[in-house]
Fold these 2 entries.
Entry 1:
Amino acid sequence: MLSRTSLCVFSFSAIVLVTLLLTWRRLGNSWATFSEPYYHRDAYKSQQTLQGAGSHGGQPMGNKSYSSHPKSPQGHPDIKLNSICNNFPDTSNILLVMKTGASESFEKIPTQLLTLLKCLPDYLIFSDMDQNIAGHPIHDSLSTVLPKVKEGNIDFDIYNNQKACVVDQASCNKMGDSATDAWILDKYKNIHMAERAYAMKPGYDWYLFADADTYVVWPNVAEWLKTLHPSERHFLGSLNLINDVWFAHGGSGYVLSRGMMDDFVGRNPGIANRWDEVAKEECCGDFMFSKAVRETSMKNVSQAWPTINGQKPSTIPYGPSHWCHPIATMHHMNSEDISTFWDFERRCTHRPLLIRDLYLHFFAPLLQPQRTAWDNLSDEIFYLDMDNTTHPAREWDKKLLERAKPRNRLNEYEKTAHRSAEDCAAACRSVSYRECFQWRFRRGQCGFGTAFVLGEPGELVVVSGWDVERIQAWVEYQGECERVLWPEI
Ligand SMILES: *[C@@H]1O[C@H](CO)[C@@H](O)[C@H](O)[C@H]1NC(C)=O
Ligand SMILES: *[C@@H]1O[C@H](CO)[C@@H](O)[C@H](O)[C@H]1NC(C)=O
Ligand SMILES: *[C@@H]1O[C@H](CO)[C@@H](O)[C@H](O)[C@H]1NC(C)=O
Ligand SMILES: *[C@@H]1O[C@H](CO)[C@@H](O)[C@H](O)[C@H]1NC(C)=O
């Protein structure tokens, strides 16, 4: 016999069961509808194709008719890609070759994957270890380094330790100075990356080499490269100087045309191994890369700065040298910087994106007369306390003394510029904008900058200031950029 309580429990359970069944059916149906574009086999496949990353083997992809945006090649529109990659340019003839290291890859690559890499049809990521980040292969660029160069070479300790790590790299790296070790190992990569990219993905018109903290403004890159002939030998970058030798700065990114790759890599099998031994003695991979191209192919880097740029919106020195120039790359962009800029780019319809636009969006709203504990590195002209009047006696650094304005050329305000932040600001106002847009004061030392930079938090004792009126007047006087200044190659 069923008791009243059991009956109650039974009927309650039955009701709950029926309700659950009905709800499950409804939810199940809607889930199925919602999930279809993402879990449908073909859609998955097309997403793989879109995101490339090493799955194409050696097929030439440089065919301009191979266009995969924003629809996937199979014709399955991907809702997410469609909205995020809206207006993304056709980059199908450009291969991005990105460089990272196992000690930083999980910190830097995921944001790239969520933003810039998401809309690229194809790319390669090289590192100092084979890895896989959420399904995206990362290739060990050092696997082809000569064994005799690796053996007994302390530069490769981190390379071996990384492979021996049985947990995550971050935990294994807690003890040592992995950033420094990874930086030293980094110099062996560049030429191997070029050689491997050429072998794995031949036939592209352009190969753009960049770091994981490089931001590539693809619409500008695509538009700019359209004006150049890929069959000619082009090596484009931002020139830097080490020991009186010019080279293309790697963090800013550099571009080699098909003609250049054919000449440098194609005609010189084993070129990377020829430089393995040399790398031991060199400081950096980008420096050595330019040296190898110069010595092998007799080709110097063409200056593409400031369009190819090693700064980011907060450190670009805005002003006469950085204004109507389109921006193609930026460097030292951390995950937050990349995400912020990506959002800005999605909302920005202005083409081409100019450095002026970055000023207007990222700096102008933050312009104010003064910030304390802030460093904009105004360091072009110095006014130093030479009489030990404002603080205990000290010797000034030689670099500062070299940039100190000669005492016999100082006006009344400049003579006292070193006394206080107010004096430094007044001295800035007393000279022309060609000498001062902004200033920085620390005890006994006043520095001027001839460009305007937002800068970054600095030591507590550092005060930075901007001549706001002067900057705004200059900006207004420039007006819109009627002539866009692309690099002259
Ligand atoms: C490139 O596209 C053209 C036109 O669609 C086609 O005929 C050709 O076979 C393609 N080449 C490659 C290498 O895919
Ligand atoms: C490259 O630049 C250096 C230094 O300016 C110069 O001496 C050299 O002749 C140049 N080489 C070529 C191939 O243009
Ligand atoms: C300031 O102090 C330094 C360090 O003691 C000294 O060498 C220098 O002569 C002093 N300068 C003057 C003008 O007294
Ligand atoms: C500070 O400003 C100067 C130009 O006045 C520029 O060269 C430098 O890169 C700036 N530094 C930072 C961190 O903003």
Entry 2:
Amino acid sequence: MHVFDLPQAPLQPLNLPWLQKAQVEAAILRLDLIDPLISGNKWFKLRHHLQQASTRKAPGLISLGGNHSNHLHALAAAGKRFGFATAGLLRGHAQETPTVRDLQALGMELHWLGYGGYRARNEPEFWAPWQARYPGWHCIPEGGGGPAGAQGCALIMQQARAQIAALGWSDYDAWWLAAGTGTTLAGLVQAEAGAHAVHGALAVPRDHGVPETVAALAGAPGYQIHDASRGGFGKFDDELLAFVAECELRSGVPLEALYTGKALLALRDQVEAGLFAPGTRLIFVHTGGLQGRRGYL
Ligand SMILES: *Cc1c(COP(=O)(O)O)cnc(C)c1O
């Protein structure tokens, strides 16, 4: 069977003054570095889908997202890399964004659903016409969510654990990462099975159903969800942008504001509020998404 692999994400020390002040040690797992085109957590959520598509000899993969979608970007790039056709169902009306141009260059067939059409994505009959149009293609839920996506995130845990000794750590205490659909968070909770705490910084408002999704997918306790959306998904403000610029300068790690920036800012607030005792060792997951920066910079 075909094995879908990319290089391991490096685990690097993360030094920032507010961490040092609270005597919290942190390392950053650089999922943004696994590949120049297939970025971040989206790859881990896609792996099982690629495997399923390969086992079923599906000619292509089809999924949905917005016009800055990191998920569609990773899917289009992975399809091209591993020899699958891809189709993307997009929210709203035809628009040129840097992401959309990449999707086209990577050979993804695009269909614009409008806003009403996109809202119907969770209805039972949604996929039928697309399955008729693309017979035998493998359909992936929005954002790579669902059990297959969550399962793929066990590999994130394995990659970090394989590298903690090189940092001089014997163990770690907790994870911190951005959550959108909550699939990556749920996957880590599932993989940890209570061994280490997992903290999700929620980039969307809490009442959008993410806590319920995480509870259903994770099937285990051992996690906390922190509000980090700062007024809504995709919203950013001057304090956030200044914080991101400052962290990039001090750490040398490129960030995007909407997920990793918000997650790091929520971490700073919790560290300053004393959530973590001195000596705590944290793994912050850089979930990637740098291609999406072109949409708001
Ligand atoms: C999609 C995305 C997330 C959220 O991942 P979920 O599994 O949907 O919670 C976090 N960070 C970045 C950069 C992303 O692109």
